[in-house]
Specification:
There is one protein chain. The chain is mainly α. The protein has one domain. The protein has five helices and two strands. The radius of gyration is 16 Å and the shape is elongated.
């Protein structure tokens, strides 16, 4: 099997990370679990996560999205008390968060390391 390398999309100031196809295949399941709410615990406690940059990338992206969802929830409750504009803002923010989550999940499913827009540059898990 060829040991090809895949580059991740990072900001302009960072060097792109490269991971082998084997690392992607070994960590794909954990990368997918990183986007499924409470199941993010599985890759966090798995020892293989610490040595696989592909899984670490997706765990970080999943944690950032989970934190954003936790922040969104009480914010949407507050916005619910503001007629029309608050309701629209809550819907737009919720749909935006869903789209970011879907983009991250599809990136993991496709074996890619694409940062989600807006929130992808934050690092909470190194």
């Amino acid at each position: 099997m060829e040991d090809e390398e895949v580059s991740s999309q990072t900001s302009n100031t960072q060097k792109p990370n490269t991971v082998s196809k084997q690392q992607i295949e070994d960590g794909k399941n954990n990368a997918i679990l990183a986007y499924i709410g409470i199941l993010i615990i599985v890759p966090l406690v798995d020892d293989k996560t610490k040595t696989n940059p592909y899984v670490k990338f997706h765990v970080n992206q999943g944690l950032v999205l989970l934190i954003a969802a936790v922040v969104y929830w009480p914010l949407s409750l507050v916005l619910a008390f503001i007629p029309i504009l608050g309701w629209l803002a809550s819907i737009v923010l919720g749909l935006g968060l869903f789209v970011l989550w879907l983009m991250g999940l599809l990136s993991a499913l496709n074996g890619e390391m694409k940062r989600v827009p807006i929130l992808g540059d934050y690092e909470v898990y190194k």
